[in-house]
Amino acid sequence: MPELDGVLYKEIVEQALREFPNECCGVVAANGHGRPAKIFPARNIDASTATYRIDPIDLMRIQDEIDAEDWRVWAFFHSHTHSEAYPSRTDREQASHAQDWYPGVRYLIVSLTDREQPELRSFFMLDGNVEEEELSIA
């Protein structure tokens, strides 16, 4: 079971709350040992309560920083402000477009339906199929 450090979890949740009511988004990078090491917030160019698209300029900058550390993209994350932490149809479609560039990447979704107790879940999405993976917060 993959593990996300509590500090990184807190960074994702804080960004989601800060950008509420819009969805937030970003990247989780893994170090050379494959462990999540850093959160890279990104701008949601949709600026929407229901969808997200990572700013391509942010994504290029983030990828350059990850490459400079010899790390890799471990996950993309975003928030759902008014729905459960489960991939929407739009999320599945976006993931299918990213498969060529980021094969095997996971998607973390944090739900803010209860802002006092946000829920974070992890998924793999391939060809429109969704597979949830258990994620431990340490």
Structure in words:
This protein has 138 residues and is of the alpha/beta class. The protein has one domain: 3-Layer(aba) Sandwich (Cytidine Deaminase, domain 2), CATH 3.40.140. The strands form two sheets. A six-stranded mixed beta sheet has the order 3-2-4-5-6-7, sandwiched between helices. Strands 1-8 form a two-stranded parallel sheet. The protein is globular and about 35 Å long. The N and C termini lie close together (12 Å). The model has no long low-confidence stretch (mean pLDDT 96).
List keywords for this structure.
single chain, alpha/beta, Cytidine Deaminase, domain 2, six-stranded mixed sheet, two-stranded parallel sheet, 3 helices, 8 strands
Describe the secondary-structure layout.
Layout: E1 3-4, H1 6-19, E2 25-30, E3 36-42, H2 56-68, E4 72-80, H3 89-98, E5 106-111, E6 119-126, E7 129-133, E8 136-137
Parallel strand pairs: 1-8, 4-5
Antiparallel strand pairs: 2-3, 2-4, 5-6, 6-7
